[in-house]
Amino acid sequence: MDGSEAVDLDSADDDTILLEYVDLNGISRGMFIPEDSWDRAVEDGVGFGSIILDWYESHNSRGITEASNLGPSEGEIQAVADPDSLVPVPWVDSDIKKANCDLLHNGDPTSMCSRSVLGNVLDLYHDMDFTTSVGTELEYNVFTELDAEELERGEAYLREVAATKGSPYATRPIVDHSAYVTELATTMRKMGGSLEGIHKESTLGHYEAILEHSSALQQADTIMSFRMAARGVGRQHDHIPTFMPRPMSEFEGNSQHYHFSLWRDSQNAFNDPSAERGLSDTGRQFVGGILEHARGLTALCSSTVNSYKRLQPGLWAPIDISYGYDNKTCPVRIPHGRGDATRVEVRIPDSYANPYLAMAGILAAGFDGIRREIDPGEPVTSDIFEEGADPENSLPTSLDEALTALQADDFLRETLGEEGIAQYVALKRNESERYRQAITDWEVREYVDQI
Fold first, then answer.
1. Kind and range of the H or E run holding 196
2. H/E element holding 176?
3. Which end of the chain is more exposed for a tag (fewer CB within 10 A), N or C?
4. Which of the 8 DSSP states describes residue 190?
5. Is residue 351 within 8 Å of 254, Cβ to Cβ?
6. How many whole angstroms separate alpha carbon 176 and alpha carbon 451?
């Protein structure tokens, strides 16, 4: 991976390697193997139970999906390690490394492996002689504890245990927790995903980490490393992170903004000094594709019922389908920099999104825009938060609405894989239905003793 030192397995007597797979929900799963099994993991893969493709963590059950309920007679899933992703796990005292995996079933790739889905989309760009570069701004909240029984108290408890207070970019809270911030930055550098910066954000316990640009696949791997490191390092400093999209209703939520650029012959393909505002036709068409598929993309980028508590007017999160030059009220923003810094920022994803699926969807949409030369239209210069979204041009306002849009988007469904999207939709429909059936603490307070 870019920025990391090559891991020498021969330098330690007793290496243990965590093979990591990220399921459709973005949950990290895996197994430890001894160092002497590494070559087999790279060449042939290591067997995982097929249940890994059909499991919903919070429901603690399987059999939810209609697609590929793999039984015990249908073979194992082979997790094939990517040797380029092998990195140390620095906060652990023992000699532990981790590597990301792609999943095969009976020797064939499966569209239910989100990392493989991203790899397949990147092949489309490779065929056009493009390489990708992606940077990420990733927000999360940090608490000093998350006691399971106390969590029943909801937001009041979270406010009590927030690790920091203070306004955006305030120095005192981040200096007070400098040991955590410094170790996290050092850890990420060792894991091959350097932080360009980390600062206090606007709400209680709120941080934003800026991840250095890398290829799309490396960036998604780095995001998963960051989530693991934020937790692992955090617990040593009484910091317990959450990547929940919006944990407290009084404040805005947690985003996962991606900054994309395409490169050909070492030149930024989005940069054109002769074009209006310096954005090339390729860049404009990339934006056009994202806008064309924005409603379906929202299901991949804002993937939980809680996500739609974030996509609300005035919360620094997008609500309509538009783009603008340095306009942070738009879901697609063209930041100020030009030359090699020319890029397209997509602001729809939240911090809970599976980075492989979210990036795969966005890049697939951008590819379609370039392929079909889609014109994005005129940029928006107004404040959408003040004006409000046009109902005819708004992003989905619920998970169900977004899933319906994804199912209706033939291009996204076919490009990302019919089987994988079918399973993803089934898992998320189940999540939405369980949410509808749940009685919330707000309902109890509002109605239990009113009449």
1. strand 195-200
2. helix 171-176
3. C
4. H
5. yes
6. 49
**pLDDT score of 54:** 57
Q: Cβ(363)–Cβ(133) under 8 Å?
A: no
pLDDT for residue 67:
43
Report DSSP letters for 90-143, one per residue: TTSSS-EEEEEEEEEETTEE-TT-HHHHHHHHHHHHHHTT-EEEEEEEEEEEEE
Residue 262 near residue 131, CB atoms below 8 Å:
yes
The Cα 84–Cα 68 span in angstroms is 30
Q: How many CB atoms within 10 Å of residue 372?
A: 13
H or E stretch including 355? helix 355-372
Residue with tokens 């197994």: 31
Q: Which domains does the chain have, with CATH numbers?
A: 9-110 (3.10.20.70), 125-438 (3.30.590.10)
Burial of 75 (0-12, 13-18, 19+ CB in 10 A): middle
CA distances from 332 to 206, 289, 375 (A): 23, 11, 14
> Sign of dihedral through CA atoms 417, 226, 88, 52?
negative
Q: Which amino acid is at 162?
A: A
3-state class (DSSP) for residue 241? strand
The two three-digit tokens of residue 198, written as one number: 């980390």
Rounded Cα–Cα distance for residues 432 and 448 (Å): 24
C-alpha–C-alpha distance, residues 193 and 213, integer Å: 9
Q: Which two tokens stand for residue 56?
A: 């919903």
* Cα–Cα distance measured from residue 6 to residue 13, given in angstroms and rounded to the nearest whole number: 17
Query: CB under 8 Å to 394, separation ≥6 — which residues?
Result: 319, 320, 321
- Whether 260 contacts 334, CB under 8 Å: no
CA torsion sign, 356 to 358 to 364 to 370?
A: negative
What does pTM read for this prediction?
0.93
Tell me the CA distances in angstroms from 140 to 101, 166, 230, 292, 350, one per residue in order.
25, 15, 9, 29, 10
Mean pLDDT, the chain cut into blocks of 10 residues (451 residues total): 47 76 90 94 87 55 53 71 96 90 86 92 97 97 92 89 86 90 95 91 92 97 97 94 94 96 97 96 98 98 97 92 96 95 98 98 98 97 87 94 98 95 92 93 88 88
